[in-house]
UniProtKB/TrEMBL annotation:
GO terms for cellular component: membrane. The lineage of its organism: Eukaryota, Sar, Alveolata, Dinophyceae, Gonyaulacales. Pfam families: MAM. It comes from Alexandrium andersonii. InterPro entries: ConA-like_dom_sf (IPR013320), MAM_dom (IPR000998), MAM_domain-containing (IPR051560). Residues 1-144 form the MAM domain. PROSITE patterns: MAM_2. This is MAM domain-containing protein.
Length: 149
């Protein structure tokens, strides 16, 4: 696939189809009705622990727009950020963001060898599951996106 779990973080993103193991936090099911990825905020996780999902190097000669769904449901949601290599943080949200999936669109700069990262940061308690789903890239013009040569 296009995504890999980073090894330079505190914990991992987990793939799931139904609701997260903890009550009162996380989505009930995938936004696209298949799988989603989430961070589990329960023990042994602690406040500030970070999980990073990083793309393989991508090429967008004219830039692109990345769209994705996110769920930030719970009493102690930390934060979710999108980073692009060479551009830093291009999108972020903190705290609870409603009781359902939300959709976001993020501009991706033109370039080759770009890496996009989703950074989930645990909040103050176990009621802080954050999930992402249905990630799509639409190039601004030119050829379809693909791995950098």
């Amino acid at each position: 696939g296009w995504w890999e779990d980073a090894t330079d973080d505190a914990f991992d993103w987990t793939r799931r189809t139904s609701r997260t193991p903890s009550s009162s936090t996380g989505p009930n099911n995938a936004d696209d009705l298949n799988y989603y990825l989430f961070i589990e905020a329960s023990s042994p996780r602690k406040n500030g622990d970070t999980a990073i999902l990083r793309s393989k190097p991508l090429a967008f000669p004219s830039g692109a727009t990345m769209s994705f769904s996110y769920s930030m449901v719970g009493g102690s949601i930390g934060s979710l950020a999108v980073e692009v290599s060479g551009a830093g943080v291009v999108w972020s949200k903190s705290g609870a963001q409603g009781n359902d999936w939300n959709r976001a669109s993020v501009p991706i700069r033109a370039g080759t060898g770009l890496q996009v990262s989703f950074k989930g940061i645990r909040g103050s308690s176990w009621q802080g599951d954050i999930a992402i789903d249905d990630i799509e890239f639409v190039p601004n013009s030119g050829p379809a996106p693909g791995p950098a040569a």
